[in-house]
């Protein structure tokens, strides 16, 4: 997990906005993860917010990395793969 920088963003006022009809399930899953990452520590609502921000940030970074790899993919690679697959 990649820690999220403090982006000074706007807080979403309701978990219902974030998690739709499954807000309680998501809260349980996120809380369980938070407890496993911090055994023996009394975690707070701020810790939960930090976890959620870090999870979103990690996803955004991984998506951006994947996009960069896609942009660097060359047509010649596709032709080589296509020729290789035709021999099977």
Task: Report what the structure shows.
Helix content is about 70%, strand content about 0%. It contains four helices and no strands. The longest helix is centred in the middle third of the chain and has 28 residues, at about 45-70. The radius of gyration is 20 Å and the shape is elongated. The two termini are about 40 Å apart.
Poorly predicted residue ranges: none
Task: Report the sheet with the most strands, covering strand number, pairing sense and barrel closure.
Answer: none
Termini separation comes to: 40 Å
Spatial shape:
elongated
Number of strands: 0
**Proportion of β residues?**
under 5%
Radius of gyration: 20 Å
Which structural class do the helices and strands define? mainly alpha
- Please give the count of helices: 4
The succession of helices and strands, N to C, reads HHHH
The quaternary structure here is single chain
Helix content: 55-70%
Arithmetic mean of pLDDT: 79
Short description:
Helix content is 68%, strand content 0%. The protein is an all-alpha fold and 88 residues long.
Core attributes:
88 residues; mainly alpha; 4 helices
């Amino acid at each position: 997990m990649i820690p999220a920088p403090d982006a000074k963003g706007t807080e979403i006022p309701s978990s219902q906005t974030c998690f739709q009809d499954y807000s309680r399930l998501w809260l349980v899953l996120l809380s369980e993860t938070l407890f496993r990452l911090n055994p023996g520590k009394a975690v707070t609502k701020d810790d939960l917010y930090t976890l959620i921000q870090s999870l979103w940030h990690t996803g955004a970074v991984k998506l951006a990395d994947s996009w960069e790899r896609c942009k660097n993919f060359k047509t010649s690679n596709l032709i080589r793969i296509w020729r290789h697959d035709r021999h099977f």
